[in-house]
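User: I'm putting together a teaching handout on how multi-component assemblies are represented. Below are the sequence lines for each component of a complex, exactly as they appear in our records. Could you produce the 3D structure of the whole assembly as structure tokens, so the students can see both representations side by side? Please keep the chain order the same as the input.
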Amino acid sequence: MITRHAMLLVFSPMLVTTTATAGHKIISNNVVDKIYHPYVLPLEQEFEWRFMSRQNDDGNSLVQRLAYGRSINERVAVEVNLVGDRDQKDDFGLVSYELAARWMITEQGKYFADWGALFEIEKEVQRDAWEFTSGILVEKEFGRTSITGNYLVVYKFGNVVDNSFHSEFRMQYRYRFIPEIQPALELYTAEDFVGLGPSFMGIHRFDGQKQIKWEMGFIAGLNGDSKDHTLRASVEYEF
Amino acid sequence: MHKYKSPLTLLILLHSAAALALPEMTITIRDHLFYPAEVIVPAGKKVKLIFINQDDTPEEIDSFELNREKVIFGNAQANVFIGPLEEGQYTFFGEYHPASAVGKVIAVSPETFDNAH
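Assistant: Of course. Below is the structure of the complete assembly, with chains in the same order as your input.
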């Protein structure tokens, strides 16, 4: 029973992703990113640093993000991101900023699965190029393990880019071993990318709501390129 | 006319069915302590824990074993849905008062639970 439900939960969005992206050929350089959980805690603030380094036949791309986020009520959290990227001259600098909101739609554990939504608007600093992302977040717990899925639809628009849609699907299967070490397997798909690899995350609590969370993953591209792998990491301080 | 006019209605009802008629346990937070500090729940079933916070300050229920975090505001109540759990003991604590606000969920077989209640 559980297995059948898990398979449905995992593969349904993947099929939708494949269908929705057929016919588009937009290059997604940074498909590997954070996998969002559909939960919001009130009275919580956080600083986060994210790092993604992708190496493939086109070279090495490096993206770093700095974010500040806070919940604004029991169900909604907002986050401001500064995004840095390394350009073709190997100079690293601020390229865009982003405003994001996460909405916890259902109470954790109340229904068969937990549901949330994500909305992000990002603008390049130098150019009139925008990206609006909306997505569904879902998580299902099976004892000490859980599956998290993110199905995202991204709309790029602006005067200097071709207006276009694409979609992404991200999935994480996590085992809650101990708070400090929680191994996981992650899957990322987009129109021209399929990546799979191990990750781990952990949490260390200090005092009250103060805690540090970390994540690290190594995702190998499975889409036929001779070399395509991404190292991702993040550190989050909640208070 | 059929009662369920659309598959969506049926889906929502099926989705909600799991949350209906769950076993409920009430835990009161007073002076940063849990009353009772131990609750017995049936294994293999979802359970609704109702936390009633009688203190003026909020408390955050945290349990890695139960995979739950929930803020209970002062002079308010909130629900925490847990399980289905395997038989065993699962600790939880209050993040703001971890030294005093400590509790435990004990999951027992449904037969043992029925006999105890």
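A couple of points students might notice: Confidence is low (pLDDT under 50) at residues 6-28 of chain A. Chain A has one domain: 2-238.
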